[in-house]
Amino acid sequence: MQIKETPSPNFGDRKDDGPVDILLLHYTGMPSAEGALAWLCDPRSTVSSHYFVFEDGRITRLVDEGRRAHHAGVSNWLGETDINSRSIGIEIANPGHEFGYVPFPEAQIAALTLLCRDILRRHPIPAERVLAHSDVAPLRKADPGEFFPWERLHRDGIGHYVPPVPWSDGPTLSVGALGPAVTELKDRFRKYGYGLVEAAEFDAGMAGVVAAFQRHFRPERIDGVADVSTRQTLERLIAALPSAIAAK
Q: What is the pLDDT of residue 98?
């Protein structure tokens, strides 16, 4: 695996000497890969990532893994809000939903797989902390989106995944719902890692989390509605967590 160096000035020191225990995957969301890379290396943008993967599989490093790249923004996972300080960020060239979202090419995913494996050999990142940008920032971001092949990466030893329960008719929870069922569902999403405030109302923030979960784990239908399939897939994922985490 060859990695080119394309240094970005947009980085800083990791804070509090905490562990690097999140691998965060993004798409670039710009019309061209070249334009996205230029933006990530432009001091005016203040944004960056550690790595950038082109559609044809070329990889370039923007920020050394020991430094804090600026890729996550305002984010939350399991109560941690400085995701940049504890993560490695990879930008994957794709125009994204705004500019004509397309499936990720084979060469790109093959290269990304090798890169992720290499990173995971160096850092103690648990499978359940290989995350989408949309997981940690569900109200702001949709990347890398529903076309991203999470199942394939899981087969190659990257990330946490279970076969999603197929969608079917049944009782749902959606915006405006109130009561103990909503409180319990929020607790389950928080247990997995999603940032949600404690409340008995299914609000827009909850819908955003449900849609982000669906993009990652149940992309058959992405509507922010907690249907039976979504809730059962969440329970499968929690049950598949390491026993020490699932028991908490």
A: 97
Write out the H or E segment, with its range, that includes residue 186.
Answer: helix 180-192
* Catalytic residue check, 91: yes
Contacts of 158 (CB under 8 A, 6+ apart): 113, 116, 117, 120, 127, 130
**What does the alpha-carbon distance between residue 68 and residue 152 come to, in Å, rounded to a whole number?**
28
DSSP letter at 53? Answer: E
The pLDDT confidence band at residue 245, using thresholds 50, 70 and 90, is: low
C-alpha closest to that of 158 among 197, 216, 119? 119
> What values do phi and psi take at 96, rounded to 5?
75, 180
Distance CA 81, CA 38 (A): 27
Q: How far apart are CA 93 and CA 31, in angstroms?
A: 9
pLDDT at residue 148 is higher than 80: yes
CA-closest candidate to residue 50, choices 75, 73, 77, 25: 25
Q: Is the pLDDT of residue 244 over 60?
A: no
Catalytic hit among 91, 106, 146, 198: 91
Contacts of 181 (CB under 8 A, 6+ apart): 173
For residue 81, give the 3-state DSSP assignment: coil
pLDDT confidence bin for 1, thresholds 50/70/90? confident
